[in-house]
From TrEMBL:
InterPro entries: CheY-like_superfamily (IPR011006), OmpR/PhoB-type_DNA-bd (IPR001867), Sig_transdc_resp-reg_receiver (IPR001789), WalR-like (IPR039420), WH-like_DNA-bd_sf (IPR036388). One of its GO terms (molecular function) is transcription cis-regulatory region binding. May play the central regulatory role in sporulation. It may be an element of the effector pathway responsible for the activation of sporulation genes in response to nutritional stress. Spo0A may act in concert with spo0H (a sigma factor) to control the expression of some genes that are critical to the sporulation process. Keywords: DNA-binding, Phosphoprotein, Transcription, Transcription regulation. SMART domains: REC, Trans_reg_C. One of its GO terms (biological process) is regulation of DNA-templated transcription. It comes from the Bacteria. Residues 5-118 form the Response regulatory domain. The modification 4-aspartylphosphate is found at D54. GO terms for cellular component: cytosol; protein-DNA complex. Gene3D superfamilies: 3.40.50.2300, 6.10.250.690, Winged helix-like DNA-binding domain superfamily/Winged helix DNA-binding domain (1.10.10.10). This is Stage 0 sporulation protein A homolog.
């Protein structure tokens, strides 16, 4: 099984050494940088699937680095920092971060967060088919018979949650947990209903009789296509 490549941007060599060793045991390949310039070079050369980014760096800072990354690459970013106050969290998310974990953190919690972010971002790589839908997870494009289906950011993330859990029943609570913290708006139960309807309107041939995302009465929803 191929290891998932991760870029760790951190200026503390002890953290780099210990975290790299732990993540390797968990199936990740870690490359590292202590500042923005080298990080951008590694991004261009190695194209990692996920970035772990500290706020305080030897050169530059995490916020500016995150902005530079997001301007050029569609790669998920998780902030790692001792600055766990609400302002710092909000600032990081406003910069485009996909998640935020405060130091000191439990390594297994970090790995769980990493895998969750990778699932949401659909970074398993390549092109995936769901029935007659074609999903390019690198470009974030969904199409049918060569015609692109334009999804909003939240609709696409919701679609990826179903795609990565095909055949499984997902409760409304599970869906809310997956998407609430990765969008710039509050998502409640009523909002979820609206977005599922919008998603069906776009991806189903007959939204009134959905064949892709089906309702499992009393339990939730399930994507049935293979």
């Amino acid at each position: 099984m191929l290891e998932t490549k991760v870029l760790l941007i951190e200026d503390d060599p002890t953290i780099v050494e210990n975290l790299s060793a732990f993540l390797k045991d968990e199936g990740f390949e870690v490359i590292s940088s202590d500042g923005q310039r080298k990080a951008m070079e590694l991004l261009e050369a190695d194209r990692p699937k996920l970035i772990l980014l500290d706020v305080t760096l030897a050169e530059g800072n995490g916020y500016s680095t995150c902005t530079a990354i997001k301007a050029k690459y569609d790669i998920p970013v998780i902030f790692l920092t001792a600055l766990g106050d609400e302002f710092s969290v909000v600032t990081g998310l406003d910069m485009g971060a996909d998640d935020y974990i405060s130091k000191p953190f439990r390594p297994r919690e970090l790995v769980s967060r990493m895998r969750s972010v990778l699932r949401r971002a659909g970074k398993s790589g390549g092109v995936v088919h769901a029935g007659d839908l074609k999903v390019d997870t690198e470009k974030g494009v969904v199409s049918r018979q060569g015609e692109e289906i334009f999804l909003s950011a939240l609709e696409y993330r919701l679609f990826l949650v179903f795609l990565n859990n095909r055949g499984k029943i997902l409760s409304r609570g599970q869906l809310l947990e997956e998407i609430w913290d990765v969008v710039g708006e509050y998502v409640n139960d009523n909002t979820l209903t609206v977005y599922i309807k919008r998603l069906r309107d776009k991806i189903e041939r007959d939204p009134q009789n959905p064949e892709i995302i089906k309702t499992v009465r009393g339990l939730g929803y399930r994507m049935e296509v293979s």
